[in-house]
Automatic annotation (TrEMBL):
CDD domains: SGNH_plant_lipase_like
Signal peptide start and end residues: 1-30
Family classification: Belongs to the 'GDSL' lipolytic enzyme family.
Presence of the UniProt keyword Isomerase in the record: no
Keyword Hydrolase part of the UniProt annotation: yes
Identification of the protein by name: GDSL esterase/lipase At1g09390-like
Keyword set, alphabetical order: Glycoprotein, Hydrolase, Signal
Amino acid sequence: MTEKKRNSFPFPLFVIFFLLSLPGPLLVLSQCSQKPVIFNFGDSNSDTGGFSEGLGLRFGPPSGRVFFHKPSGRLCDGRLMIDFLCESVGSDYLTPYLRSVGSNFTNGVNFAISGSATLPKDRPFNLYIQVMQFLQFQSRSLELIPKGYKDLVDEEGFNNAIYTIDIGQNDLAGSFTYLSYSQVIHRIPSFVTEIKNAIWTIYQHGGRNFWVHNTGPLGCLPQKLATASTNASDIDNHGCLQSLNNAAKEFNTLLKAACGELRSALMNATIVYVDVYAIKYDLIANAVLNGFENPSTACCGYGGPPYNFNQSVTCGAPGFNVCNEGLKYVSWDGVHYTEAANGVFASKILSSQYSSPKLHFNYFCNN
């Protein structure tokens, strides 16, 4: 059985922030004239259960405790940004491509898998493989629909769908484990090229509407702060690692330029670049003012302040601790964000103030 949407938005920002302070799910309304199809590509930031389904692993409690009240295949205590985006256009939550039982793909597919990157391109389930899965899904759907199969996407659905992409964090994080800063910077153009190639390929198979997230402030993650060997000169005013964040900014600069190049090259395509980095860093920098706990501390982990992260005792492992439900933490497990933070991120994404061009997400389902 597919997970059904609860509610949807956007509302004016002051209303959203008021609602975020209340217990329970957001009570908001869709602003779409028609229900869109969404195909998502990415990593754990938008994985709604692909990793769990693909490897046969089940994330145990306390994941999912806030909204789903049980583990949902998400590395979060509740909803992800992609869940809030689906709500905003009246769509059901995206079903993972690898879910073998009870799948309904009429509103789209989620190809995102936790741990995915852009390179190496042929490693499951990196971006190239996700795109290949999409092409197979498209081919099979168009072959089976005339034979009476349901719960799939038709040709019009593929052509009018929103193609969301949120990937790159693992490329940077993985590179920093064995390369110097300058070597990581040298690799970044190859990461962006893979995203550019993915958009090209989807376009060649009918896709016209692309929604591309840049990567967040890697140097602000409690995991990186707890495990990196650093000196005080690399810490900024908000407790983040400047070197890792500078690499993320370089990635984002090249990704934004690539989106601009694609807009010029792809006729009749709409490509929206979203500055998720600015959104996330702003909440981290102003966490206390927005009613959040210490943004450098994981809600679920081990070790206590300042980061509550230990690579040997991660969230859900024997001996872990978890913050009280109802407290507004930015970080869930040291790598991923809480539902409370994701709700704020989504509200700012939906404002269009961080988008280039400044189009609302519901633009695609009203045109």
